[in-house]
Amino acid sequence: MILPIRAFGDAVLRRKAQEIDKDYPELKKLIENMFDTMNGANGIGLAAPQIGLDIRLFIIDVSPLADDEDYEDIADELKDFKKVFINAKILEESGEEWKFNEGCLSIPEVREDVKRKSTIKIEYYDENFVKHTDTFQDIRARVIQHEYDHIEGILFTDHLSALKKKIVKGKLQKIANGDVSVNYKMRFPK
Ligand SMILES: [Zn+2]
């Protein structure tokens, strides 16, 4: 089932999300709905706050990038990179900072370069509540960092310089007012 995606300006996107346990009601169904929602909006990551739940859950499916020539070298790894992260905790970020042009399903039509470190070490539970500690890099680390920010109440636009923030401010206000056209289901704060 496709759920409406909360737009910039919604208070839930600013809340620090809470941990859940394996008895969280209808967790399997929720995860399934999140994948339907993400795929329906052509996203490669989606965090629970984006569908209105302040819980520490996000999903990632970077397989669509496997066909992108920019990722030719890691196409095989990306093809199968579909994951659920529950109660994730980034333990370490390391390596060189690199810029990537990020976007967000909650902030349609805004894309900006964001600098982040290249490598992360993260602890999380999967959809079966099996605990993992993994190290990720390249675009996989990037998407995880972006989604992880969501469960901390942070949006990619928070990382922009003061000048860039000024430039996108008007666009963000328009989104908060529902004054933007999107081809997927969204819920605006006003
Ligand atoms: Zn996002």
Automatic annotation (TrEMBL):
It comes from Epilithonimonas lactis. Its cofactor is Fe(2+). The keyword Amino-acid biosynthesis does not apply. It catalyses: N-terminal N-formyl-L-methionyl-[peptide] + H2O = N-terminal L-methionyl-[peptide] + formate. The active site is at E147. GO terms for biological process: translation. Removes the formyl group from the N-terminal Met of newly synthesized proteins. Requires at least a dipeptide for an efficient rate of reaction. N-terminal L-methionine is a prerequisite for activity but the enzyme has broad specificity at other positions. It holds the Pfam family Pep_deformylase. Keywords: Hydrolase, Iron, Metal-binding, Protein biosynthesis. Its EC number is 3.5.1.88. It comes from the Bacteria. The gene is def. Fe cation binds at C104, H146, H150. One of its GO terms (molecular function) is peptide deformylase activity. Belongs to the polypeptide deformylase family. Binds 1 Fe(2+) ion. This is Peptide deformylase. InterPro entries: Peptide_deformylase (IPR023635), Peptide_deformylase_sf (IPR036821).
